[in-house]
C-alpha cells in the first residue's frame, strides 16, 4: 500500500532525446512508495534542433517524450525546448522555476533520464534530507550508491558522493554557489554543451578557486561543494539503477568497465543514520576522497608519462626525485 503522503520537495526532471530512458524514469517516478506531488514536479525536455543526436542522424523523439510525460504526469509543469540548449541551461531553467515557485523550499531535487530510481527512492531521500536538515554542511543527499571512493560502493552506510544522480540539494547551497555557476554558464554560452571548450572552462573556473575533477556539469557542482566546505552524501548501496550506456560521457565499452552497481535488495533503515555523530568523519572522508580523485585524474597520469621518458630515466637518483616533485607540483597547479 502506498503512503498517502507525497514527496515534500520540488523535483526537476531532465529528459533528452532518448525515449526508452525517459520511459523508464517516468514509470519509476510514477510508482514510488512516497508519491510525487505533481504541483512540485518540473519536467524539461531539451530540444532536438542543434543537438548531438541531430548531428548523428538520430530521429527526433522529443515530441513523443513530451506526450508520454504529459500522460504520466498531467498536472506537472512540462516544457519542451524547440532548440537544444544543453544540460547547463536546462539545470539553470529548472532551478529558477523551482525556486521561484517554491520560495520556502529547503531542498530541491534534480533527476535525469539515465538513472531509474527503485520504488522506495523518494522515500529514502526524503528521510535523508530530514536527517541532514540540522547539519548545514551537508549540501546534497542521494541514495545511488555512487560514492566518491569506489571502495565504498556496495557497502552499507553513508559516504561522500561521487556522482550527482537523482539527488536533493540544499537551497542555501544553491544560493551560495550561484555566482560561480553563472560564470560557468556564461562560459558555456554560444556553443553546444557537447562541443564545449574544456580547456577554457577549466581555466576560468580555476581562476575562481574551483578545481573540478572533470569539466562536466556535475563535476563543477561537486567541486563547488568542496570550495564552500560542504559535503554531499549518498548511500553505499544503490537504490536504483544507472542505465546511461548511451550519452555524453559514456560508451558501451566504458559503461561495462565502470561496473555500476545493481539495485540492492537490502531495505534502507533511517534509524542507522546519525549525521550529528558522523559529520566529522564524513568531512574527513570527503577531503581525502576528493584529493584522491584529483590525484588519479591529473597527477598520476602525468607522473607516469613523465617517468616513462628516456630523459628522466637517464637522470641521477637525486635529480629524478627533484624532477618528480616539480612535475607533481605543476600537475596540480
Quote the CATH topology of the largest domain: Spore Coat Polysaccharide Biosynthesis Protein SpsA, Chain A
CATH superfamily caption of the largest domain: Spore Coat Polysaccharide Biosynthesis Protein SpsA, Chain A
Radius of gyration: 21 Å
List SSEs in N-to-C order: EHEHHEHEEHEEEHHHHEEHHHH
Q: Which blocks of ≥5 consecutive residues have pLDDT under 50? A: none
Can you walk me through this structure?
- It is a single chain.
- By secondary structure, this protein is α/β, with parallel strands linked by helices.
- It has two domains: 11-294, Spore Coat Polysaccharide Biosynthesis Protein SpsA, Chain A (Alpha-Beta Complex); 302-332, no CATH class.
- 45% of the residues lie in helices and 13% in strands.
- It contains 13 helices and ten strands.
- The strands form two sheets. An eight-stranded mixed beta sheet has the order 3-2-1-4-8-6-9-7, sandwiched between helices. A two-stranded antiparallel sheet has the order 5-10.
- Strand 1 (11-15), helix 1 (19-29) and strand 2 (41-45) form a beta-alpha-beta unit.
- Helix 11 (275-307) packs across helix 13.
- The longest helix has 33 residues, at 275-307.
- The chain is globular, with a radius of gyration of 21 Å.
- The N and C termini lie far apart (55 Å).
- The mean pLDDT is 88.
Amino acid at each position: 500500500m502506498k503512503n498517502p503522503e507525497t514527496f515534500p520537495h520540488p523535483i526537476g526532471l531532465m529528459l533528452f532525446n532518448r525515449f526508452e530512458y525517459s520511459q523508464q524514469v517516468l514509470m519509476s517516478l510514477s510508482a514510488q512508495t512516497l508519491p510525487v506531488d505533481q504541483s512540485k514536479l518540473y519536467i524539461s525536455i531539451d530540444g532536438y534542433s542543434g543537438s548531438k543526436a541531430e548531428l548523428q542522424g538520430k530521429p527526433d523523439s522529443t515530441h513523443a517524450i513530451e506526450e508520454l510525460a504529459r500522460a504520466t504526469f498531467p498536472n506537472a509543469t512540462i516544457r519542451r525546448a524547440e532548440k537544444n540548449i544543453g544540460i547547463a541551461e536546462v539545470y539553470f531553467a529548472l532551478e529558477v522555476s523551482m525556486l521561484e515557485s517554491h520560495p520556502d523550499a529547503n531542498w530541491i531535487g534534480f533527476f535525469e533520464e539515465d538513472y531509474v530510481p527503485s520504488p522506495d527512492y523518494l522515500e529514502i531521500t526524503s528521510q535523508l534530507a530530514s536527517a541532514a536538515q540540522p547539519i548545514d554542511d551537508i549540501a546534497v543527499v542521494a541514495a545511488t550508491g555512487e560514492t566518491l571512493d569506489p571502495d565504498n560502493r556496495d557497502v552499507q552506510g553513508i559516504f561522500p558522493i561521487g556522482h550527482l544522480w537523482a539527488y536533493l540539494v540544499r537551497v542555501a547551497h544553491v544560493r551560495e554557489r550561484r555566482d560561480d555557476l553563472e560564470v560557468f554558464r556564461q562560459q558555456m554560452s554560444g556553443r553546444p554543451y557537447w562541443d564545449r571548450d574544456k580547456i577554457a572552462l577549466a581555466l576560468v573556473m580555476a581562476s575562481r578557486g574551483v578545481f573540478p575533477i572533470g569539466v562536466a556539469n556535475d563535476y563543477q557542482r561537486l567541486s563547488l561543494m568542496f570550495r564552500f566546505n560542504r559535503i554531499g552524501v549518498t548511500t553505499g548501496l544503490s537504490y536504483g539503477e544507472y542505465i546511461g550506456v548511451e550519452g555524453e560521457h559514456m560508451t558501451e565499452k566504458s559503461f561495462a568497465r565502470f561496473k555500476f552497481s545493481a539495485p540492492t535488495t537490502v531495505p534502507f533503515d533511517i534509524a542507522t543514520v546519525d549525521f550529528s555523530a558522523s559529520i566529522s568523519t564524513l568531512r574527513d572522508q570527503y577531503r581525502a576522497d576528493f584529493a584522491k580523485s584529483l590525484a588519479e585524474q591529473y597527477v598520476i597520469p602525468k607522473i607516469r608519462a613523465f617517468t616513462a621518458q628516456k630523459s628522466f630515466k637517464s637522470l641521477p637518483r637525486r635529480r629524478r626525485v627533484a624532477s618528480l616533485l616539480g612535475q607533481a607540483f605543476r600537475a596540480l597547479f
